[in-house]
Amino acid sequence: MPSGVPLVIKPPPAALSKGEKILWWITSTVAAGITGDQFTFNDEISALAENTGDPPATEWRRVVVRYFDTQSLDLADAQQYSLDIVNYTNGKIDNSWTTADHDAVKTAVEAFARSWLPIIPPRLSLDQMLMYRMAFRPYSDAKPFADTGSPAAAYGFNSPGSGTGTVPPQPCTTVTERTASRSNWGRLYSPTLAGSCYTAAGRLLGTLVDSIPQAYNSMFDALITGGFHLVVPTTSVNRSAFRALQSVSAVSVDDVTDAHHRRRFKHSTDRTILPTPTELGQASDLAGR
Questions:
Q1: Closest Cα partner for 216 from 243, 256, 253, 267?
Q2: Alpha helices (H) along 153-205
Q3: Nearest-angstrom CA–CA distance, 113 and 99
Q4: Where are the domains of the chain?
Q5: Residue 201: half-sphere exposure toward Cβ, Cα within 13 Å
Q6: What is the pLDDT, as a whole number, of residue 277?
Q7: At residue 3, does pLDDT exceed 80?
Q8: Cβ(218)–Cβ(112) under 8 Å?
Q9: Residues contacting residue 184 through CB under 8 Å, at least 6 positions apart
Q10: Dihedral (C-alpha) 193, 194, 198, 202: value to the nearest 10 degrees?
Q11: What span, in angstroms and rounded, lies between the C-alpha atoms of 282 and 204?
Q12: CA distance 258 to 237
């Protein structure tokens, strides 16, 4: 069972923009006590008890964007990140997804995916976007998410990067998706950035610190215009099970270089192994001293 009391939210003020109204409605899925001080119209949020049973039967899409390493040619070395998106109709989450809905999300997310191409090395190529059905399981099940099954939609590309300066696969930057609860913030790791993206001190260029979140917000704006919203799935609050979708209220990028350790090449193409002097018999027998 979830801890805390969910919120029942009154109709949003008419003065709010479409995006702000969507944000207003989506906060009804966030734990009480977390979101109350995050909004301008606090006095219009009533902390009334809802059904504290299982999570609502909400369905959303997890969009997985992949960049293939054309030099490695090993699928294990492909890089990807994911985004979680809900469909909104008349201010409420709409579980019905049409082909047109998937195509609209694809157009918005593709623009963001392509914004990385000028700053990633040519060996990486945007090659795939998959959209999976997502939903929460009942609290009686320890696993928070229902099985995704096969992709609900799939799109292919062949768009290599054009950045300059080769670096290992691990260096990257992170895009932090801020929510009302800091412990539940989302994060996506960028594809490997080209060497030209860093200053002499090893920090991300200031122009990119500005342009990356702007590209994210452009995607967000296109999604909102189409009736969709970016969210961060939450499975626990204060160490207690709580399955809900939190709205992304801000996005941040800084100049500190990050590393995605799982992107280490899975196979070596060159290796040297030398016996130590002890094995060659050139070391003294210290045990006899």
A1: 253
A2: none
A3: 20
A4: 8-267
A5: 6
A6: 79
A7: no
A8: yes
A9: 232, 234, 237, 246
A10: 80
A11: 48
A12: 26
Token couple for 266: 């899975």
Q: Which two tokens stand for residue 211?
A: 């342009």
Residues listed for the chain: 289
Max Cα distance, the chain (Å): 89
Tell me what pLDDT residue 27 has. 53
3-state secondary structure labels for all residues of 60-124 = EEEEEEEEEECCCCCHHHCEEEEEEEEEEECCEECCCCCHHHHHHHHHHHHHHHHHCHHHCCCCE
> How far apart are the C-alpha atoms of 211 and 234, rounded to whole Å?
28
Q: Give the bridge partners for 168, in sequence order.
A: none
**pLDDT > 60? residue 219:** yes
Sorted by sequence, the CB contacts under 8 Å of residue 40 that are 6+ apart come out as none
Check residue 289 and give its pLDDT.
53
Instruction: Indicate the pTM of the whole model.
Output: 0.76
